[in-house]
Amino acid sequence: MAMLIIHHKVGDYETFKQVFLDDQERRRRSGCKGARVHQNAHDPNDVWVVLEFETAEQAQAHAEGLELHEAIKWATSNVSMPDFVVLENAMETDA
Asked: What gap in Å lies between CA 61 and CA 5, rounded to an integer?
């Protein structure tokens, strides 16, 4: 399992939320197996998106896709450019 983590500031969380929900089918087509959105506890417009993929290659391809970058520009009101990182699962424990 691999994750693509996207961190960025959004202009308005509700606008971001709607764009993110509307983009669900495109994420599925690119191999995304699930998604979670987290907000900074002190700043709801500071958003972390975690997307799950089978492989790091799928996650990287998704991160590099033009459609994703266009959706982010629209969803964030072009407030900031996001940071992307692809992670691969290295270890799991119960606690």
From this structure: 13
> Tokens standing for 12?
């308005």
Longest CA–CA separation in the chain, Å? 40
Question: Is the model's pTM score more than 0.85?
Answer: no
pLDDT at residue 71 greater than cutoff 80: no
Distance of CA 60 to the CA centre of its chain: 12
State which fold the 2-88 domain adopts: Alpha-Beta Plaits (3.30.70)
Q: Is the pLDDT of residue 40 over 70?
A: yes
Find out whether 4 and 59 touch, Cβ atoms under 8 Å: yes
Pair of tokens at residue 78: 């072009």
User: What ranges do the domains of the chain cover?
Assistant: 2-88
